[in-house]
Design a protein that fits this description.
This protein is an alpha/beta fold and 253 residues long. Helices cover 46% and strands 15% of the residues. The protein has a 7-stranded mixed sheet with strand order 3-4-2-5-1-6-7, sandwiched between helices. A hairpin with a 2-residue loop joins strand 3 and strand 4. The radius of gyration is 17 Å and the shape is globular. The model has no long low-confidence stretch (mean pLDDT 92).
Amino acid sequence: MSVRVVAIINQKGGVGKTTTSTNLTHALAKKGYKVTVIDLDPQGHLAVSFGVTSMQISGIDAVMLDEKNVEQQVIAARDNLQLIVAGPRLQEIEQLTDGGAKRGDLLRKALHENLQDQDFVFVDCPPSSGVLVANALFAADEILIPMTSDFLALQGLSHLVGTLKRFESALKKKYKISLVMARYVTRRRISKEVLNTMLKHFPQQVLATVIRESSVLAECPSSGKTILEYRPGSRSARDFRDLADAFLEDKVM
């Protein structure tokens, strides 16, 4: 079975992309799956979340500039889990105008041809719609969209879906699209309204587990630990273990 390449994407910031990328990939790795996660955001927050604090290590930037092979850039982050950091030159790629299609193919080939021993490759995308996100969409087979439980998130989702449809048309492919409520505030009425709207417009696509908003999830990155390490017995850790099951089993609401 070929590697599954999943882009974690939402053009709106603050929706929990990196939190989802960090904790979902670790939960899958702890279940025995071989997982690679790539930080495609120049801010480099994913690497920090795993305890990699040097911003000067080259990473996926060198792969996309055709200077390094993807295998040379992997860092063993946890058992069964390897990380490819953003690298200090990733921001430059967002400004490049030449060789865009070829560079997109470099990323796609690197992931599909050189990471065949992996079960999953996750790409943590930046909150934008530029060259980097285009590269991720070129390479990915599946899209995972983290959402917050507020009205503006729905508007952003509508814009994102339009972008995905344009890529599907241009690339002659159909993405497997899943949504996850990544920052759910249980005591707010708007949370339930947003979730119900998602279920109405995306039937059979909203994963069955919601990730409830909690302060402990916000604390994890400062320690360089995932929630499964920082507070393994917490409700948030349980949410991410359940999310991994829902993702693997296509369990939807």
